[in-house]
Each structure stands twice: as structure tokens, then as C-alpha cells.
């Protein structure tokens, strides 16, 4: 939450949320890791923000911390409404973590191919 409070002090509208399967959010199984679902959650957060009259849709940014850097990057690739990202202390995907988070080797291979 330290980032949220700092951003708010700097004049940004800031939104923090628990992705599905974690914390106060719903979803089963609990603590399930799904990168695709986290990107969808970020897109839903963007939907919520740009529906607000006090948010300029051309100034929506995503901040990712630790493993969240992966989903911040993916959300910017998937959604042109995300105008910029900032990443902090990245925990980038190792082959094992990539397989767990992306679901199957086909998804991992597609991500690698897309990056070339």
C-alpha cells in the first residue's frame, strides 16, 4: 500500500486490488496463480477507473511490483488504454514459474515467440 499512498500524495488517482483467488477477492481455488486472469483483473480495474468522471482515460498507468511486473507488462500489451507502466523490483518468470503461471508450454512458447 506504500505505493498507493505515495501516488495519491503526488496527485494521482490510485487503485489497489486483490486479484481473483487472492486476499479479499473471490474465486476458487484459493491462491491459484493465473497470469491470464491477473491481466483480466487489471483490465477490469481499467474499466472501473475510466468509467469515473474524475479520471482522464488518456492517463491510465499500471504499476507492477515483484511478480506483478509481468502482469503490468502483459496488460499494456493486451490493452491500449494502458498508456504507460512502471515496474518495481521485478520477479521475472523463470521457465518453471512461467509454466505454472501461463498454464501450459504452448502459452510459454507463444510468449517467447511474441517477444522476438
TrEMBL record:
- Quote the protein name from its UniProt record: Dienelactone hydrolase family protein
* Molecular functions (GO terms): hydrolase activity
The UniProt keywords, alphabetically, are:
Hydrolase
Q: Does the keyword tRNA-binding apply?
A: no
* Organism phylogeny: Bacteria, Pseudomonadati, Pseudomonadota, Alphaproteobacteria, Hyphomicrobiales
Instruction: Tell me any Pfam family this protein matches.
Output: Hydrolase_4
Q: Which domain of life is it from?
A: Bacteria
Q: Which residues form the Serine aminopeptidase S33 domain?
A: 3-83
| Organism of provenance | Phreatobacter oligotrophus
Show the SUPFAM superfamilies listed in the entry: alpha/beta-Hydrolases
InterPro entries, from UniProt? AB_hydrolase_fold (IPR029058), Hydrolase_4 (IPR022742), Polyketide_trans_af380 (IPR051411)
| Record carries keyword Hydrolase | yes
Amino acid at each position: 500500500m506504500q505505493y498507493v499512498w505515495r501516488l495519491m500524495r503526488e496527485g494521482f488517482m490510485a487503485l489497489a486490488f486483490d486479484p481473483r483467488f487472492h486476499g479479499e477477492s473471490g474465486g476458487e481455488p484459493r491462491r491459484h496463480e493465473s497470469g491470464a486472469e491477473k491481466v483480466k483483473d487489471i483490465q477490469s480495474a481499467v474499466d472501473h477507473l475510466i468509467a469515473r468522471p474524475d479520471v482522464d482515460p488518456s492517463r491510465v498507468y499500471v504499476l507492477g511490483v515483484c511478480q506483478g511486473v509481468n502482469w503490468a507488462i502483459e496488460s499494456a500489451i493486451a490493452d491500449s488504454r494502458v498508456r504507460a507502466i512502471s515496474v518495481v523490483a521485478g520477479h521475472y518468470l523463470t521457465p518453471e514459474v512461467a509454466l505454472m503461471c501461463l498454464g501450459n508450454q504452448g502459452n510459454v512458447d507463444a510468449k517467447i515467440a511474441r517477444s522476438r
